[in-house]
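Complex record, three chains
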Amino acid sequence: MFVLRRPLLTIPVLFVMSIVVFLIIRLVPGDPVRTMLGFRATAANVIEVRHQLGLDQSLLSQYVNWIGALLHGDLGTDIVSHASLADLLAQRLPVTFELTGLAMLVAVIIGVPLGVRAATGGRWVKRLTEGFVVFGISVPDFWLGIMFVLVFAGTLVILPPSGYIPFDVDPVGNLRYMILPVLTLAIGEAAYILRTTRSAVTSVMGRPFITFLRAKGISSRRIIFGHALRNAGPSIVTVIGIQVGVLLGGAIIIETLFALPGVGRLVVTAINQRNYPTVQVSVLAIATIFIVVSLVTDLVVGWLDPRVTDGAAT
Amino acid sequence: MARPAGDGRGGNVTLHAPAAPLAVPVARAHPRRTSTRFIAVGLAILVVLAIIAIAAPVIAPYDPEAVEVKRVLGEPILQHPFGSDVLGRDVFSRVLFGLRVSLLVSVSAVLASTALAVPLGVLAGYFGRWVDTTVSRTLDMILVLPAMLLAITFIAILGPGSVVAAIAIAVIYLPILARVMRASTLVVTRNEYVAGARARGGSHLRVIVTHVAPNALGPVIVQASVLSAFALQLEAGLSFLGLGTQPPTPSLGGMLADGRDVLIQAPWVEIFPGLAIVVAVLGFTFLGEGLLRAFDPRGVAE
Amino acid sequence: MSAMLSFTDVQVRFASDDAVQPAPAVGGVSLDVQPGEIFGIVWESGSGKSTLANAVLGLLPASAAVQGSIRVAGREVIGLSENELRSIRGKEVSMIFQDASASLDPVWSVGDQVAETIRAHAGVSGREAKSRAIALMNEVGIPDAASRYGDAPHRFSGGMRQRIVIAAALANSPQLLIADEPTTALDVTIQAQVLQLIDTLRRQNGTTVVLITHDLGVVAQICDRVAVMYGGTLLEVAATAELFARPQHPYTRALLAANPAGAPRGRRLPVIPAQWSVESLCAAEVLRASAATTERVDADE
């Protein structure tokens, strides 16, 4: 059964990804421990840290131990701050979730209806949406973010240029800080979703069953939203799944730009500090999110299109 | 035709309708004419940028790293059309040199990736079966991580720098280019003349080089153009994070990072480097779209 | 007895970018379809076949220009607004097409697609529409209709899918059903069943049926009267038996003779020469000449 098979296919993917992440610290040229410790690299420290990280064991047992620890919730410690990485992630993941989640939500809210209009509307709608698509795809989001800061925080001083307050502490403040970052990511994303929606809906509207629907006297509105969009759904959802990966990548930059305490910014800081354990855990977290989201979108596609679950030809 | 999404790695999405970045009324579209227009515009932009990039040392009015204390955060004036940055350096000259570096890194990355992807894709598509499975599955492993994440992972291991960034970008786009090459190889290999060439006693290598590859290259070239746009953005992003091209070498992304603190007092420090990126990306996008319409109407390229 | 459907000098032209105007897809057709009959239109595959049918329901693309008059139950249909047309489609006039799989939405359940037609024209509740849909599915011979209501189209065979399409088309008891090659995509045995179904439903509900086909066998099976078209022009109209026994037009005769079943054994099968143009076929002299030398053609009935 599709619903059972598809999640099972995720396991090898997670496995491969964990190996890739595992190898990060082991692939560093030279001695990663010395590089990490920098000026604190006395001989004693090096041996101790190497033992702590399990680097003195065989590759296989390292991996096994590492996975075992992970599954028990022990993610190790941050080399610099000595904080528990599990705690660190627990603090930082919600920020990244909020940013990415809201950005995708806004992008879909803007992109799908506009995409439908672009597919079914007149010449001017098509031209305007084309322009928006070109703009959204070509402009790098961090530049857009900077321009937003210039306009909204610099010239019109209505929004803060950076910073963050957690939602449960101050919901309004939280949203004020999140508007610009979310908008920055969402606009570029909306352009892709618009293009995908337009393309998929146009394609469906050209299919013969649409003619039969018209012959049955079904209204255009119902045809477009009840049938065309529903048939276009799988394509759109699939692209959303892929785009979450892109958004996560974009979040790394946007978090840095807007000083948001998320996992993306954590990873960049950690790289600059040569803080390998943190790098590994952060990359692992982000990659896992991506893989899980891919799984969810595949399942949603299966739900939308009965031919997928039956294994029939689409 | 399937279109790349976001970072250029569209995955298994196949959409069957032209998705044009510029308005073309579908009922009266003449693919020949519009494709020429796109290619022309794209090439024009890119040629100008290439000339700028190559000739930067010659045409830049100032040394990009020359500090001029009197001109700190100076406004754009005739001698300094893009103004001056926080160290008094001429932004215009820095943009020229930054463009040079960004173009160099992204274009060379895509070229290197294509150079590797073509033989891999041909092997997978021509021989099929276990060769195909091995090559495809191995390359698919690269797709496990999203592009930006993969890039920073590379940099985490090998350290920051333009060379590492270029390598990372090349690896990131290798699976897509190889897949496109494989797909078009499959299409070509099924043709009669390939069987005919083999029947005439041609060795695999000879057949591949003389018949298959030349005919299958179209979509890959299209894909490479499209990916160059993304590569440029990726490089700029990495430099922005301080993980790509390292100072003191000027890079467009790096300039954007530096200018953040003085954004409000001296917006020109941010605006012009960003515009340079946008123009370059547009150039590649137009070129790619024009090539797509002219040479790959069936949409083998993603 | 006034006609259920009448075409008067109907011409359909498609706009083209070429400087030279192409011949009209349909040129000057006039015919009447009487209530309650099954009227066949024999039309070789090619452009124009579906044009006439699509013109009735206003389903032609914007590039088509229709002249003349098309009346359904006395009401002029050309020039109606989209809203008015929509109230007619699926309610007074229904249409079914050649490929049932291409007619059904692949992601909707078949039952919902039948029920949707009902809800579009009768303001009934969802549950009511569903029970009516199940009843219809039973009527067209879908076994186990109630439990198969929620199944997607790909779970049915071609013949079953066409039955579902018929159910959806007849859901609101239209006065007129236009069937455009309804059996072409089906196996011969299934063809017979579907045609039988159409005939049965016609008798039960008094629906008038216009059946467009290229297959004389289909015509022979259920049509009361037949019109023969070629290249967009009407050549002759007659009762089925009459047409098969005493075809007037040389093209009709050639068509019947080209049927392998009717050809005498051991002799070359007659073919219709490709160079026959419409004009030459309609030339008055040709008609007069052929009327003078009426031959009996033994057709398989």
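Note: The mean pLDDT of chain B is 79.
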